[in-house]
Specification:
Length: 433
């Protein structure tokens, strides 16, 4: 209902808010046209709306900007909420409720665990010094939240030898006698299946084939295959666990980190990224957008399916699936997408072509007389170059590392703390100077 109200507000403003270029409005004023109600274009579902198509695309481009700055990510971590966490059982022990009856508790606890994981990786450097990270929250059909995390390591801590991966990632069942706690955690959370003939109805079975690549092959050591993918060490050492009366060996183990698994006691998959071509897929995967659950077929008399007035709000609503945990997550205003360091989106335009947002009933004189209209982030960069010697040494995309854009003052000022990465908006091929 909260999301519906936000979309209702945006739809209610469709006829009021419009945008056009500064130069175009000046041209209208010069010929005496003061009616701006039909000028420009309508404001549609903006990138500021969480979960919208523009929101997803902008976050994907921001993630790729981190990749451009720091190189390819080194670790890819997926952590899933565990409804059987001791904290959940302790909270519900004197009630008849089940964990799925309290999605608010699951979301709060998962957020606490996620923050602790980020602190462990970023501040305590269990993998080494971290330069940047980005994560996105998703929700399974049954409702449980999970996070996809990309970690960019410092150049001094990057892994160049596949054998060094064994220091951080394991894909083997531990010895039950020497480490019984880890053995139980692996058997409970990190075993894939059983699937195949033992369980043909497993979700990983598509057309009677293994869609996830399990069971894997035995390998005596970690190596990179001919296609550039990492093959983890899975020795045939006799270790096994029993699930559904079936013996499962190292070929069915999902790669994990021993420290993280013991700390968080949940399904937490840790993988090493080393394939250049998989980076784009990786970022698109973690920014693929909300789930869709059902579809409907509607008969239309329009022979031409192309609709120039596409209703983006209706398109967002169609087949939208919201679980109880996802609703709770949004109600608590927890981050759906988060990254460090921040990425600043830099506007780019020709002289006088900056976008101006205005109300359909506003007077054109009032619009153009606003002190903030004529100046933009891009023109402010030119003005700052006139005043500061340091600014002259920086490219536009490098500017946010040393300067801060003051939106109220419409100017750049020297940065006192922290730093951000600049990303210039994509320039279409038809854009010529």
């Amino acid at each position: 209902m909260i999301e519906a109200q936000r979309l209702h507000f945006i739809r209610g403003k469709q006829h009021e808010l419009r945008y056009d270029t500064y130069q175009s409005l000046r041209g209208m004023q010069s010929v005496g046209n003061t009616d701006v109600s039909s000028a420009g274009q309508r404001v549609i579902l903006p990138s500021s709306f969480t979960g919208g198509a523009r929101y997803i695309m902008q976050n994907y481009l921001d993630a790729m900007c981190l990749c451009r700055r720091f190189g390819y990510p080194d670790f890819f971590i997926t952590i899933t909420c565990n409804p059987n966490w001791p904290e959940v059982k302790r909270f519900l022990k004197d009630t008849t409720l089940k964990s799925e009856d309290r999605p608010d508790i699951l979301c709060r606890l998962f957020k606490v665990k996620l923050d602790a994981l980020i602190k462990l990786v970023n501040d305590k450097s269990i993998f080494g010094k971290v330069q940047a990270f980005v994560y996105t929250i998703e929700f399974q059909k049954r409702g449980l939240p999970h996070a996809h995390i990309c970690i960019f390591m410092h150049p001094s801590r990057k892994i160049h030898n596949p054998q060094d991966v064994d220091k951080f990632i394991s894909a083997e069942i531990p010895n039950k006698d020497t480490d019984p706690d880890l053995y139980k955690l692996v058997s409970d959370h990190m075993i894939h299946g059983p699937c195949g003939d033992a369980n043909p109805n497993c979700t990983c079975m598509v057309n009677k084939k293994f869609s996830k690549g399990f069971p894997k092959m035995f390998n005596d050591e970690t190596a990179v295959d001919s296609q550039g993918f990492l093959v983890y060490k899975r020795r045939d050492n006799g270790q096994y666990v029993v699930k559904s009366d079936i013996m499962m060996d190292n070929r069915t183990v999902v790669p994990y980190n021993k420290t993280l698994l013991k700390q968080f006691q949940a399904h937490i998959n840790v993988a090493w990224c080393n394939q250049d071509g998989s980076i784009k897929y990786l970022f698109k995967y973690i920014n693929k957008g909300p789930d869709r659950a059902t579809i409907s077929f509607v008969q239309t008399n329009n022979a031409d399916n192309s609709d120039p007035n596409l209703d983006e709000i209706k398109a967002f609503y169609d087949c939208r699936y919201v679980s109880a945990c996802e609703a709770s997550w949004h109600i608590f205003s927890f981050d759906v997408h988060y990254r460090i360091p921040s990425v600043m989106r830099l506007a780019f335009h020709l002289p006088g072509e900056q976008r101006v947002i205005y109300g359909a009933n506003e007077d054109i004189e009032d619009i153009l007389n606003k002190t903030t209209i004529a100046s933009s982030m891009f023109t402010g960069w030119f003005e700052c170059n006139k005043k500061h010697d340091l600014a002259k040494t920086l490219k536009y995309a490098e500017f946010p590392t040393k300067y801060v854009w003051k939106k109220q003052l419409r100017k750049w000022e020297p940065r006192l703390r922290g730093f951000a990465i600049g990303r210039v908006h994509a320039v279409p091929p038809a854009f010529t100077i």
